Amino acid sequence: MTTPAERWLLDTNVWVFGLRRDANFPACASLLDQIGSFAIIIPLQILKELTVNLTEVEIQDFYRLVNSYPERFEVSWATAPAERVKFYQEHGCRPHASLVFQLRGDGIHGFISQKHATFLSARTPGRNSGRGGIRQCWKLQTRENSTKSM
Amino acid sequence: MQSVDELARTITALEPAQQQALIDKVAQLNFQKGLRDLADKYRRRLLAEDRLDVPPEQIWSELRRIRQEIADHDYAG
C-alpha cells in the first residue's frame, strides 16, 4: 500500500528563484529538487504568474513536465468562489494574496513561499487543523538552506 | 551496464511493491532531469538578456507587480 504524498503549494517566487538557481535563495532550488518526495498543487494564479515570467517555449516545457508527472502534480484551473474571496477580503487579506482564495482547502498540507507567507496562518483562524484546513505555513529563510515554521 | 532485456528481467523478479517504488523513482528522476533542463534554458535566456544577475529587489518588485495585476483583473470588485 502506498502512502499518499503530502500536497504543497509553492509560491511563484519559489519557482522563479529556484529555476534561476539564485544564490541568494538556495532553499528554493533545493525545494524544487525535492519534488517527488511531496506532491504539488498549482492554482490558476500561480500558473498565470509563471506564464508571465517564462517564455512560450519555457512554459510549454513546464506544462510538459507537469503533465509527465501526474502522480505528483495537480493543476487547479478553478477560480475561487466569490463568497470566499469576500470573506478573506473582509478579514483584511491583501489583494495580492488572492491566490490563497483558490485553495480548495481539502488535503492541502501547506503553502511555501520565500516571502508573503504570514497571511495564510494569520488569515485562516480556526482552519489550521483537520480536514479542510491549511495545517502549516512555511517561509523559506533568506540565504539559508533551512526552512522556518511561521 | 545491463542490457534492456536483462534489466527487464531483474525488474520483473522484484516484488510488486518494489516494482512500484522503482517506477515512482524513475518518474521522479525523469521529472528532476526535465526541471534541471528547464532551469538551464531559463538561465541561458536570462543571461542572454543580461537579466540573470539583476538584484533580488528588482525581481521581488516585478513579482509583486504581476501578482497585483492578475489579482486586480481576476478579483476586481
Largest sheet of chain A: 6 strands, mixed
| Number of separate helices of chain B | 3
CATH fourth-tier homologous superfamily of chain A: 5'-nuclease
Number of helices of chain A: 6
Helix content of chain B: over 70%
Poorly predicted parts of chain A: 116-136, 141-150
Measured as a percent range, the helix fraction of chain A is 25-40%
Q: Cα distance, first to last residue of chain A?
A: 33 Å
What number is the mean pLDDT of chain A?
Answer: 73
CATH class of chain A: Alpha Beta
Structurally, how many domains make up the residues of chain A? 1
Overall form of chain B: elongated
Strand content range of chain A: 15-25%
Topology of this structure?
The complex is a heterodimer of chains A (150) and B (77).
Chain A: E1 7-10, H1 12-20, H2 26-33, E2 39-43, H3 44-53, H4 56-67, E3 73-76, H5 82-90, E4 108-113, H6 118-123, E5 136-140, E6 147-149
Parallel strand pairs in A: 1-2, 1-4, 2-3, 4-5
Antiparallel strand pairs in A: 5-6
Helix pairs in contact in A: 1-2
Chain B: H1 4-12, H2 16-48, H3 56-75
